[in-house]
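I'd like us to work through together how a protein chain folds, taking it slowly. To get us started, please write out a protein record for me. Label the sequence line and the structure token line clearly, so we can match residues to local backbone shapes. Once you have written the record down, we can walk along the chain together.
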Amino acid sequence: MTTEQPVQLESLGEGIVLLTLSRPKALNALDMGLLTALDQAITEISAQEDTRAILMTGAGDKAFVAGADIRAMSQMSAVEAEAFARKGQQVFRRLEDLPIPVIALVNGFALGGGCELALSCDFILAAENAVFGQPEVCLGVTAGFGGSQRLPRQIGPGMAMELLLTGRNVKAEEAKQIGLANHIYPQDQLRDEGIKLAQKIVACGPNAVRLTKQLVMRGMSLDLENACVLESQGFGLCFSTDEQTEGMQAFLEKRPAKFN
């Protein structure tokens, strides 16, 4: 793993990859360079068929991503700002659309674009010092990387509206209470707990994991009836795989399943 790159990828074994966002002097704030590097990292991960889960964190112990780079944004025209927002949305959507699970390890501030990036992941594990928020209105702008859309889907429109319209930050404990964070851990245990969660996922059938994520993501944009039809199709598809045969045979034989 090189330390000069703004996005670093490290294999942790068992198909688990650690992705670190690294602009520590700027608290890992998002600029066009970091977004481009993240986009390239997603392309690299997509080409690795043996990758089964991703852990994402920020360099240092103060911030996951402190937000978008305000100094850079302050000089943007309206056209440039829209292009910047579209770039962030495109990259975050690519991350969200990865067929493998992505676990955010929020090790400090996750404000603005940082909160939006965490919301693009499938799980959010927060350190005790984590702080979440969408403070854009305090700067005279709206959320730009999907926060006004993903946050209501994550925690409900009422609480999301409060956070979006006041810019109020929430600490880790409240984030868990409102459904923004899955779990909270001491800072020095966050990575290990993320690895444990990833290992639990990796121990399951890889095709079933991928298909389940797709069913959840696609189903949320459908009405319940059509979403359930989609689920039944996915369920049936599983029965054409060796994975289903091995999983059920292992259960009947009272032994751990051995998935490829």
About this structure: The longest strand covers residues 7-13.
